[in-house]
């Protein structure tokens, strides 16, 4: 038997191309297909693996060559996508057994596309020593119909000591109505903002009746910008009156994180709801007084541009109102509003602000119209 195996290896051609592999597959040339797994170019290795995974003849070389150049080979694993023959390809799961394998979370992601590797990934999710591997493995439970598996994932969400694993568990429960209670608790009770954000995004997928209340509380009360951003993401393009009211409250309550302010403007601009346009218009004076201090606002804080992009037909009236309510603006605020109003065809003074206002024009400290 050993002689026969060695003879098979010796009979492999030194070089094969993708075209050669097509011919080898048609003619049942196993040595040529096995040789494809040794080639330097990735497409050839991928094609060889794809042909060998369901091959009618001996394909033991496939398990022997899952690694290329000293590490697991993404090309071979790509070729094994959708493999279901446990006898021929079940060996792929053993790659995870080697703790020294490089980029093991990425390896898990590659194995997720190979059905025969599922059992090994489930084991990794439960017990791997590396929490980043466990987190990557949580994806295996997406769309699971097994109540026992879902209960286990909810347990990890509630009490796993690693926040990365808890966040991944929350994401893995996407669309799982049975996890409603666990997800709702995690949106407000978990100590890690990444977990709260992930739980909120997944809770949104359940389309439960109290979601607006939960999301609004996160947007208005959560101390972590990441969670407030997650709440805004769930409100994109909303027409829901309760969410629009929440956005108005957020838009007139000081927000210290510039990335959240930018996301808030984008969220308001993303919906066709008339109330969102009204919020942008009405909020301009308060926004300028609160955020435009020593210089013209950055792109993320440019409420005038956001309002104009959302509802340019009302921009003249909105900005004119802002000009008339200029009491309490800084010099930079007056320059910002005045210059924009001029661009719209209105008349307003634009103070120079010692070069900090970002606008030229009259040196007056007064806005006129």
Walk me through what this model shows.
By secondary structure, the protein is mainly α. Among the domains are: 1-113, no CATH class; 274-369, no CATH class. It has 22 helices and 2 strands. It has helices at 2-10, 18-26, 30-36, 42-52, 60-64, 74-79, 86-89, 104-111, 118-127, 131-137, 147-159, 163-172, 180-189, 193-205, 211-221, 225-234, 241-251, 258-269, 274-291, 303-311, 315-324, 331-343, and strands at 67-68, 71-72. It has a two-stranded antiparallel ribbon with strand order 1-2. Helix 11 packs antiparallel against helix 12, helix 15 (211-221) runs parallel beside helix 17 and helix 18 runs parallel beside helix 20 (303-311). The protein is elongated.
Q: How many DSSP-defined strands?
A: 2
| Integer average pLDDT | 93
User: Could you describe the largest sheet, including whether it forms a barrel?
Assistant: 2 strands, antiparallel
- Helix/strand order, N-terminal first: HHHHHEEHHHHHHHHHHHHHHHHH
Strand content: under 5%
Number of helices: 22
Radius of gyration: 30 Å
Distance, first to last CA: 97 Å
In helices, the fraction of residues equals: 55-70%
Shape summary: elongated
Strand order of the largest sheet: 1-2
